[in-house]
Amino acid sequence: MDFASANRRGDRPPALGSGPGRGARAGRWIAVLVVVAVLHWIAAQWFERNRVDLNPANHEHVPVQVALLTPERVERQPAPKPAAPAPHPPAPTRKPAARPPREQHVLSALQPAKPNEPAATPASEVAASAPPAAASANAPVNANANASGAAASAAGAASAPQASQGVKFSVPPSAELDYDTFYNGVRNAPGTIHWASNAQGYEMVVSVPLPFVGPFVFSSHGGIDAFGLAPAQYSEKRGRRAEDIAIFNRSDRKIGFTRTPASLPLPDGAQDRFSVVMQLASLVRGDPDAYKPGVTRQFFVVDSDSGENWPIETIGDETIRAAQGYLQTRHFKRLPRHDGDQRRIDVWLAPSLGWLPARILQTEPNGTQFELVWRGKLNVDGPSAVDASPSVPSATSPAPAPADASTVTSEPAPAAAVDSTAPTIIKP
């Protein structure tokens, strides 16, 4: 009995999880974990190589607000008034030239002087005294020309246009800007900002490519009024979605939207989401010293379906890294618009680029970041027409030529009048 039961116990198979099979399974799991770890390490290395730290020093500290600036009228140069035509000088009166004496080969210096006649004057003294004797030569022409020039200068100075009082304002020149674009720190295809400006208006088109979604295109165009840039229309095109438009109706002073039937009153100095960047650049470009750390300027900014006040504060001067080196910039940050506002917008303006934006960073409430960083050379068409001040005639500038200057200058200058009583030196 005992041997039979022992034999039955010996015939049982080994328990699961014991023996050589257990070691083989453990080895397979270890190999899988090693492969996963290696793949994670490769992915981390790829991410680090493609991630660019564009601003090594992350300045989270915001300076204390020292001034709050609201929309104000900007300083503009009025169009110059047409200058009044200079009066034409009267035709010079010609005096008949004295006839030479009959003794053609006799020097008058050898003739005895008459009782009431001055002594003969040498030729060198005659030449030296010719300019003071303008009363007998070109005196009428020179006197009239000087008088007309002085009158024109005085009239020009009196009618010189005076700049209207207001904050300094200088629109950046037209440019085609290229930017590196980043989505959460990973580089994407380059983006562009098309900026065109003149004395009458501006146009701005921002194109940002995004993977799997399509390009985001934001455009704004309008004029320039007493408060700076004056948008007429702002549009947003996000990937394959329909375009949303905001219309600034300045005749009715209303802002309408295609996305919603609601409308808003149009305040002075209102901007859209991207024209506000160039409005800020124009103000800083006009008076850089006015924007010190802590100075905050408030803008009314319109989106695709709403509008609200944006307080933008000056953080300070910072150095950022771009594709071709480092740039000195001035950092501006939009402060929270209301309690719980987690969306953040930062702008860096570069004085070496004419205070055009060198970097724009938008941080969403969930932490997603969209970024533009300037790259390449800046192609500037020329100085903005708004900056060009009208030329003002000065007292030292020559007077404008009369309309019939050709007829005056075509005549030979009248010969110097000679006093018939004065002795004359005649060459043999």
TrEMBL record:
Signal peptide: none annotated. Residues 1-23, 76-105, 384-428 are annotated as: Disordered. The chain crosses the membrane at residues 29-47. Keywords: Membrane, Transmembrane, Transmembrane helix. The keyword Transmembrane applies. Residues 384-410 have a biased composition (Low complexity). Residues 79-93 have a biased composition (Pro residues). This is DUF3108 domain-containing protein.
